[in-house]
Amino acid sequence: MLSVGVERTLVPRLSALARSELGMLLDVLGAVSLTDAPDERRSPFLDKDGKLRTGPLYRALCEAQRSPSPSAKFVWGSGAPPRVQFFTWLVLKGRLQCRENLAKKHIVDDGCCEFCPGVSESMAHILLECPFAVEFWRRIGCFSVLPGNVAEMHTMACPPHVPTARFSAFLQLCCWHLWKRRNEAIFREELKTLSCVLAGCKEDARLWAYRFKIEEQGLGEEWCAVGAFSAPSVDSQKKNHCWPGSRWLIDVSVGSGCGVVVSAAIVTLSLSWQRRHRRRRLCGKVAAVAPLVAAARNTVDSLTVYTYTELGAATAGFAEERRVGGTAVYRAVISGQAFAVKRVSGDVRGEVGVLSRVNHSCLIRLAGICAHRGDTYLVLEFAENGALGGLLHGGGGVLNWKQRVQVASDVTSGLDYLHHFTNPPYVHKNLNSGNVLLDAKLSSLGLARAMAAGTGGVGVQATAAHRGHAGVPGARHGLMSTQMDVFAFGVILLELLSGKEPVFVAADGHSTSLLWEEAAEGMMIDGGDDEAWFRLKEFMDPRLQGHYPFGLASTMAALALRCVAREPRARPSMGE
């Protein structure tokens, strides 16, 4: 999972319990030290070079699961590749790892489909009921009426226009490609079109026919002739003069024919010039930002490259009223959707690299990029509700207790992902309430730094400590680590509890006080419960008007004090 980078898309989808268990597992694996030594073990699943072969492994699993049930012949007698047979067995037994089943195991928080909002992602939904699946089966023409349950698929009769030989394998092939399409969309972020899925089915149909060693019977061609598989290519359509909606005109005069030829030539030249112009303009746009994405070369194709003119139109010419809170961020509207356009001077390769490598629901998403006259413009996800600091300290509204707890939970999730589930791990280095966007997304990852392998959370040298960390033990020396993020998180917890800014004017009206120092002094209690209640009530935000559970508030306060401990080793990890 770590070597292929699956955790980037997998971890954000896990429940808090599953993330905690995965974190503990990674801690165990991190403590394991292996040494190279000759492996004398032999296994039937290894080839002559000692490499694992999945074929024998799947066949062993298939043999272990054979049974005299009505579906056994449909699965194990199909002749499909072993992994597809085992996939079909999981489907018929209701054990496929769809979100509905994962939610029952508390691996994810809800079982809703990621592509069909409000609909449970069951096996039937993926393979039969999803609009994509319905259109897939319609194009193939395999079923006049789709089965109501995937467990009934083995009872379906072969339609007249589908070759009866190996029909069960053909059915498994189609389901296998629907499942692969779903997984590629989630884990590779590649959403294949219907045409691509049908083309993949067609190619596998030919390969499987050779597998059955009956290609001389024409089964591969019969399979490929089913429904949408048989759609003629563009070349064959042109060759046979059967392009949809057009007919060749036979009886035309020589004069009109020449006119058509000349007109067609003019249109062709015009279109060719437009294509070259668009290509030249696109190449110029990509070349302008290519140095910026050198660290994120694999993601340049997924980012939209904008021109300065396009961003100017989206921000009303970078109008002052579009500026967000006096910052270098502007609200933009692109294709009817709101984005934040952030102007950055200097080297932004670090920020682009981090934003392109992380993928979490609690981290801000990079959508596009533009370079213009030495400045870089990052097109980011827009948070309509603004920053946490502005809401807590700007007087724009009041967060209730439930909202504050949710913000704390989301910030915890985002930092835990950066520290423990990215490869390499990242230190945010710039965490403060001004960079927590509601709904609780972490922004300003420009200062994030990858930790060296094997540091285990021990600090790496930063170029400069952020002013938000001034006064924090260790920040004066430029030493940054995950524990610095933990300290900053503790400060945010104290802000959520008290409603005060991290640095505020003291009661004498002249000196300034640090919130974490006031909290450490004010809530170090040696008395009983009554005194603890009184001290905590004095510290809490009066705008809450006492509408919070004392026990939970006390627990949050105790956690915050642990996070802002002067000794970094005394602070908990974000996983804790």
Task: Provide an overview of this structure.
It is a single chain. The protein has 576 residues and is of the alpha+beta class. It has three domains: 7-26 and 61-230, no CATH class; 290-381, Phosphorylase Kinase, domain 1 (2-Layer Sandwich), CATH 3.30.200.20; 388-570, Transferase(Phosphotransferase) domain 1 (Transferase(Phosphotransferase), domain 1, Orthogonal Bundle), CATH 1.10.510. It has 21 helices and 13 strands. It has helices at 7-10, 16-30, 54-64, 70-76, 82-92, 99-104, 123-129, 131-140, 167-187, 194-211, 219-224, 234-239, 254-289, 308-314, 349-357, 388-393, 401-420, 482-498, 515-522, 529-539, 550-563; strands spanning 304-305, 329-334, 337-345, 366-372, 375-381, 426-427, 436-437, 441-442, 449-450, 460-461, 479-480, 503-505, 512-514. It has a five-stranded mixed sheet with strand order 1-4-5-3-2, with helices on both faces. Strands 6-9 form a two-stranded antiparallel ribbon. β4 (366-372) and β5 (375-381) form a beta hairpin. It holds the Pfam family PK_Tyr_Ser-Thr.
Describe the SSE topology:
Layout: H1 7-10, H2 16-30, H3 54-64, H4 70-76, H5 82-92, H6 99-104, H7 123-129, H8 131-140, H9 167-187, H10 194-211, H11 219-224, H12 234-239, H13 254-289, E1 304-305, H14 308-314, E2 329-334, E3 337-345, H15 349-357, E4 366-372, E5 375-381, H16 388-393, H17 401-420, E6 426-427, E7 436-437, E8 441-442, E9 449-450, E10 460-461, E11 479-480, H18 482-498, E12 503-505, E13 512-514, H19 515-522, H20 529-539, H21 550-563
Parallel strand pairs: 1-4
Antiparallel strand pairs: 2-3, 3-5, 4-5, 6-9, 7-8, 10-11, 12-13
Helix pairs in contact: 3-5, 4-5, 5-9, 7-8, 9-10, 17-18, 18-21
Pfam family, one: zf-RVT
GO molecular function: ATP binding; protein kinase activity
Protein name: Protein kinase domain-containing protein
